[in-house]
Structure formats: structure tokens, C-alpha cells
Amino acid sequence: MYAFTYERPATQADALKLAQAGGKLLAGGQTLLASMKLRLAAPEQLVDLAGIKELQGIRREAGTLTIGAMTRHCDVAESAEVRADIPALAELASHIGDKQVRAMGTLGGSVANNDPAADYPAALMALGATVHTSKRQIKADDFFQGLFATALEDGELITAIGFPIPKRAAYVKFAQPASRFALIGVFVAQGDGGVRVAVTGGGNGVFRHAGMEAALGQQFSPDAVAGVKTDEAQMSGDLHGSAAYRAHLVGVMTQRAVAQALA
């Protein structure tokens, strides 16, 4: 490691002051601390958000489940409100990483990092969620902008995520055994506005699958998407799976997610 200063503000206002002065926000640390150990990141000041109570918690408001940015994965997984209103989201959270990761990692940290194989971005995209920040509200479709890139500006802080409650939803992923990130993960949601299908793990970031959405809009069943193809040219390939394999997995995971949503 190397020398850096550590701050643990108690309020959102204090955290914003530190962030606007150049401090690096620490929301859980699963990615940032590992990057620092490898010298891939070298912030001079860390601003730990763990002590800010106003960034934590889960509440239901007029058909929307709002979850604070510093709510931990384990709390989302175990929340009675989430399990009642969006059980697919609780199930997703319960399979992020391992028990230690779920005890420290946070919703806001995962969303801000936007790892191309992370689980939460798929939930935000499929559910049509809204990212609440210290400055504004950003629709999920506009928030995620590619590999580790988001619409967040310097000094801008995610405060909460608002999830519209769907009629039915499910998330299924084919996990890479060592990291437990999604080799391919598919979140399917059916709401008042129609069907949305979001894919993670397949390329430079989470994306919506227009072909799957169109087919499921006509008939919400696994058979409806059995013949829908995914362009392997849009998929990434590595030692864990080729682009063609990932493209095939998108179809398989989508059918499983639809079946699970109907169960």
C-alpha cells in the first residue's frame, strides 16, 4: 500500500465537501481497495460513506421501492420489504459474491462502479429504476454508459435508487465459479410499461435486449424467446467463455428467467 488520508464523515453534506475537494468516495471497497493494492488506483484521500445514516435504509413510496445507496447487499437480500415487493431483487442480492462481500458491499457502490459483469446494473435497467444523486435524478437507461462508465459527474454522490415495483420479474445468472460475477446474467421484468430485458456479463456493460423484449411483449413465455438470437459480435470473449458461448447463454438464461418469473 502507500500513504493516504482517511475520512469518515457523518453527514452527506460533509461527504460532498470532501468529494468536491478531490476525495475518493469509498462505498464498500470490494473494487477500490483491490485496485489500490495493485496500484491501479492511488487516491490521496479516501472518504468512507459507511457512517452516513441518511444514505441507508429501504422504504416503499407509491409503487416504488427506494433503497439508500449505502444499503448493504445482505440487507437488500434479507429485507422483508424487498422480498415482498421485488423478490427477484432480493434473490439477486443474495447471490452477489460471497458472504463477506455481501456484508460489506453496497448497492450504490456497485452501481457507481458499473462493472460490466455486475448484477445490480441489470436490475436497474430491467426495472426501469431511477438513480437519485446529490444533484439530480437519472434514469437507468441514461446512467450506464459502457465499461466502468456512468453519467456521474465529479463530486456527485449517489444517494438512493428508486425501483418501480413490477408485476413480475426474475434474475438468472450463469456465474463464473471463482469470482461469482456473471458470465451472463439476465434480468426480466414485466410492468405497466411492458417487458424489459437487461443483460450483464456479455460485453462492455449492461444492455437491454430489444429482440427479447419484442418477443416477450407478444407472449410472455419461455417458448417466445427460444428462437431469438443474440449477435455474438456484440459479446466479449475470454478464457472463461467465447463470444459465441456467451451469446448462446443469453438465450438460455432469458428462458430460465421468464420461467422463474411465471413460477
Automatic annotation (TrEMBL):
One Pfam family linked to the record: FAD_binding_5
Gene3D superfamilies linked to this entry: 3.30.465.10, CO dehydrogenase flavoprotein, C-terminal domain, Uridine Diphospho-n-acetylenolpyruvylglucosamine Reductase, domain 2
Keyword field contains Ligase: no
Keyword Flavoprotein (UniProt): yes
Alphabetized InterPro entries for the sequence: CO_DH_flav_C, CO_DH_flav_C_dom_sf, Diverse_Substr_Oxidored, FAD-bd_PCMH, FAD-bd_PCMH-like_sf, FAD-bd_PCMH_sub1, FAD-bd_PCMH_sub2, Mopterin_DH_FAD-bd
Domain FAD-binding PCMH-type: 1-168
Highest taxon in the source lineage: Bacteria
Keywords: FAD, Flavoprotein, Oxidoreductase
Protein name in the entry: FAD binding domain-containing protein
Taxonomic lineage: Bacteria, Pseudomonadati, Pseudomonadota, Betaproteobacteria, Burkholderiales
